[in-house]
Amino acid sequence: xxxxxxxxxxxxxxxxxxxxxxxxxxxxxxxxxxxxxxxxxxxxxxxxxxxxxxxxxxxxxxxxxxxxxxxxxxxxxxxxxxxxxxxxxxxxxxxxxxxxxxxxxxxxxxxxxxxxxxxxxxxxxxxxxxxxxxxxxxxxxxxxxxxxxxxxxxxxxxxxxxxxxxxxxxxxxxxxxxxxxxxxxxxxxxxxxxxxxxxxxxxxxxxxxxxxxxxxxxxxxxxxxxxxxxxxxxxxx
Length: 237
Hints:
Blueprint: E1 4-8, E2 13-20, E3 23-30, H1 35-49, E4 59-65, H2 69-86, E5 89-94, H3 95-107, E6 111-117, E7 123-131, E8 134-144, E9 157-160, H4 172-177, E10 178-181, E11 184-185, H5 198-210
Parallel strand pairs: 1-4, 4-5, 6-9, 9-10
Antiparallel strand pairs: 1-2, 2-3, 6-7, 7-8, 10-11
Helix pairs in contact: 3-5
């Protein structure tokens, strides 16, 4: 079984996970604005607990986005730096796929629309169907105003992720077809608290590793979806 380290800093949560000897260990913390200070110590503690060094790993996985601009940069930079130092490949994993998988593992739903709050009255979102326990992307990952979120067909869907706080602003079609949000009835008061986690990123990364999808560190790029992520604050007013 491959020894893979995974990390995610794409939201207010910061998490590190390790797959070793068929077991997944995870350190998950909700620590807004502390990712830069806490991530490396968390990684070191995780490796120390398993008696491993970075060079003992087979690959490093990370949440490549979408999500917080600064957070994605932190995860990408740390993953690339560790991989370069130990001559390892990396596995960039979608944060939307990770939260879809989290819900599937908990509730077993086969059709999931994952959405993260993108700020600026927009959401990052994607739809997934599950095959053999893994999410298969239907269409593309997108960033849109909530009213522009749409579904590929007339089946029932489950919504998961922080983007569902914009439920009131979504279309009539979405409100009709999304029959549950994060395991609860789809109503305007639902407040979703599902985060991407390193453990679920790791579960997806193991599959990619076995399929030979790991990349050289320089080829692993963050996914922002929004072209204007670098707007200055004055330009957003």
